[in-house]
Every structure is written in structure tokens, then in C-alpha cells.
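Z., the sequence and structure:
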Amino acid sequence: MMNWATFSVVLAVVVIMLGAWTRLVDAGLGCPDWPGCYGFMSVPQSESHIAIANARFPDTPVDVAKGWPEMIHRYAAGALGLVVFGLAATAVRRRRSGVPFKLPLFIAGFILLQGAFGMWTVTLKLWPQVVALHLLGGFTTISLLTLLTLRLRKFSAAQAISASSARQVQPMPAEPASSLASFRPWLYGGLLLIILQIALGAWTAANYAAVACPDLPTCQGQWWPEGMDFQHGFDITQHVGPNYLGGQLTADGRVAIHVTHRVGALVTLAYFSILLVLIWRRSPSRELHGPVRLVAAALAAQIALGLANVLFYIPLPIAVAHNAMGAGLLLSMIYLIWRHHLLPQTQTSIATHTTTMHQEVTA
């Protein structure tokens, strides 16, 4: 089951990348209906099927080149849904053995909600609010699947330990462990900061604001562009329009969104530069050094990809990689928090085991 959970995480990353690809090639409305494409289960290609499709949707004639990215994304999302439902069914069947089953059930329910947002993305013609929530839903799904994978790994490790003889483990000194425990709220603060930055990225993508500032480090030649319209750029009460492909915001609104996303990136970089260095220096047994390196590498790569997006004017491979690395940064942070949580649990487990052994000997 753990292997399937790991596979679901990989597949979720693929789905996020395919979603980014679909959006970047302006194929979000490549199929005007859902879940099929012009009433077919694949993109109509023969002359007869195209004629039928055009008759069904005369306002949106068939564009095969844009239909396939949309359908490939849907196929991958459907495959992910099947894997998640399989994990949920297996977890329920094996729940008496101690396998976590509530989380898989919750993920299965969330997948249904995510599918609904995928449908609304099409039926509401790329309404920015729905598009942004759909993107955030994808990151939420991959986060939940990662958490499930970590829990299953912990469950498998516990079973392996219980089946073997007790091992001698050197406990972490109490004072350094307490020092590391003090970082917990700051780690959650960092996680929140990443989520907010991803939300800003989703809003930037949904409103086609990535190209609003074509230069670096300034924006349109100014450090703080004049005329930025934050009220318009972050108006979440936009009514449902006829079609949001290409965006409906003014240039000043898009610049405000883009600049906010840049400022968020700078704040995130500064926050983690301090936090990761402090954790590295205060980790006595280097147990957190690996996860810290992972977060630092993901953050550096994400910043570099963001800069490359602007410098090279949103090239497709870099833009897709930027979306994928956003997921990578989020998952690396979840892994760091998970490892941090395991430290006190490990010490408690060792103390409990030592006490039990002492009682057996004295008895």
C-alpha cells in the first residue's frame, strides 16, 4: 500500500504539471464540456466527428491542438482518482491491522471536490476564483497524499521494529531536543508562508498576470510602478463573465498582482534563509540536516525558475517546472515538519522502552 501511496504522489505531481501545461498553451477551454470533449470521450479528429462537435458547440469550433492538452490532463486526473479510491478501499479493508484509514477516506472525498472544481473551471469559462481554487486544490491533494505516504512508512517501520528484536538507540540530549522543539511554531509559520505564496502564484496564473512585469529587478522600469490597482487586482467578487481566457483585468490590476507575488517571494526567501540556518546550527545529531538541505534546494530552484520565467518571457518548459517546483517546495517543507515531529516521539518511545526493560529486569 505504501508503494501505491508513493506512486499517487508522483502521479499528482504529473497532474499538476499537465494542468500548468494546459493553462500555458491556452487550452483550458480546449473542450467546452466536461468530462468529455464535445460529447466524445476523446478529442474529435475525423471529419464526421468534428462536424458533429461543431454542430453541438457552434460558438467554440474544434481546435484539436488545444483539445488534446485538456483531455490528457483529464485522463491523468482520472487515473489519480482511481488510485486514490483504491487506496481508500484498501485502507478500509485493512483498518483492523492498524493501517490509517480516515486520511485515505478524506482524500477520496477531496478528490471528488477537486473533480467538481475541474468541471466548474470549464463550465464557468475559466472564472479566476474557481481556477485559483482548483490550482490550490491540486496542491492540497498532493500534500495530503504525501502525509499519507509518511504515515504508511511510519506504520511499516513500527511493524518491522515490533517483529524484530529491540535495538539500542542513543537518545538525543534533553537540552538540544528542547531547543529544536522551540522551532515548531516557526516551521508552521514557514509552511503558511509557502501556502500563501502558492495562493498568490495561483491568482497570478488565473488572471494571466505573469507577463505584467517583463523586466528585473524592476517592473516596467520602476521599483514600485505607479498606478498599480490592488483593489481591482485582488477583487474576488468578480462576476462570472462570458469567457476569461486571456484574463479580464486591467493592466494596472495585473501589475499589482505580479508585484505582490514578487514581494512574497522576497519575504519567503528572507524568512527561510534565517530559519534554515538556525535549525542547521542547533541540530545536535544532524537528523534534520537532510530535510533542511531539501527545503533549501527546492527554494533556491523555485526562485531561480521564477527569475528565468521573467527573463525569458515565460517559456513553456520553465513555466511548467516552476509549477512543479512549487509543489516540491511545499512537500519538502511538509517532510521537514514531519521529521521535526518525529524527534520528540522518538525520545518518548526510547524512554518508554527503557522503562519497560528495567521493570522486567527488576521483576
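Residues 166-175, 346-363 have pLDDT under 50 and may be disordered. The chain has two domains: 1-162, 176-363.

Let me know what you think.
H.
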